[in-house]
From TrEMBL:
<dbReference type="GO" id="GO:0008168">
    <property type="term" value="F:methyltransferase activity"/>
</dbReference>
<keyword id="KW-0489">Methyltransferase</keyword>
<dbReference type="InterPro" id="IPR029063">
    <property type="entry name" value="SAM-dependent_MTases_sf"/>
</dbReference>
<keyword id="KW-0808">Transferase</keyword>
<dbReference type="InterPro" id="IPR050723">
    <property type="entry name" value="CFA/CMAS"/>
</dbReference>
<dbReference type="GO" id="GO:0032259">
    <property type="term" value="P:methylation"/>
</dbReference>
<protein>
    <submittedName>
        <fullName>Class I SAM-dependent methyltransferase</fullName>
    </submittedName>
</protein>
<dbReference type="Pfam" id="PF02353">
    <property type="entry name" value="CMAS"/>
</dbReference>
Amino acid sequence: MESTNIFSDVQKHIPITGDMSSKSSIAYKTTRLMAGALNRSQMALAEAYIGGLEIPDAVFRSLLYASMPVLFKYCPSLLAPYEWVLRESDFLAESSQELMQVQYDLPQAMFNRMLGNWPVIYPKYSTGFWQHGATNLKESQMHMIDQVIERLGIEDGDHILDFGCGWGCVPNYIMSKFPNVRFTGLNLSHQQCEYMRQKMQDLESYLSSERFTLYEGDLSEAQFSEKFDKILSIGVFEHVGNLTHAFQKLASFLKSDGKVLIHIITVRIPNNMSSGFTHRYIFPHGRYWNHDAVPSHNRDLKTVERWYMNGINYHKTLTAWLERFDASQASVKTLDYGMDYARFRRIWRFYLLLLGTIFATCDGEYNGNGQYLMTHA
């Protein structure tokens, strides 16, 4: 016991290792400087790639396979390039309108090609679940939603709120399996809402039934006339800057005996993580919460069960997206991306290649997805 205390006391003075919240002032400042230097070097590589530097995919992946295990295992604090990554912000969400412009309001035809667009499985911008034998992207997304159904304990007749419902894939699939389930979708993206509104006019879509209601707006401003049996949120909390405020809001929408399932990219390192590249080009103010972050916020909602989904699942999903993205160039290159298409293509190739490889490093044991079942505290 005494040796453990001595080790902890010594470690707080050593930069880059262990928990940043316990560091001495000098060790903390030194670590932040080193994290900034690493981020600048990564951004230099990204900018070179975007500018036309040819790096074979195999070489790119080899660099990450060599470097990321060192960072995950021994230097995790270097993976937080900005100060805001390490703590909650004052706002429920940051840069939400900017996020819509640079990410979710891009041409729908491009997303359809990259993510897939089938009669029941609409584009879904989160991981598939491959560990139960899925052989393709569509099956992996169906298996992932089936897992959500089981873990949230969805029953026929439930009224469910889907916070950040994307293009309506999850509500559509679940309503196809439960004839009396009702859904309310809450989404800030106008482009995604327009997609769902078209489906709501399509008699072959389950979104066209009276069992689906769409609310376009922000969580902080949302109000509903009735409380929900279940709430689910898939792939949204990477964009939420304040878990405390978000859980307080969700709790206010939940029946006294209701359940919430949060699905989120998570990291099993002492601190939260982010990427300077994705912050600048893909997900403004996006962060990956530490695997213990959600359970540590138990004021309004408490975690009663949690699971870790190995990162190999997201690796396979992102690899499938990259293959589909590459295969669709001829049909999507004339769309309006708000910039030169060649530049857009290289930004997105770097993004899909970068994240797809990072999730596979360390056999997916450090960077994957967390699922949290919550009830009223």
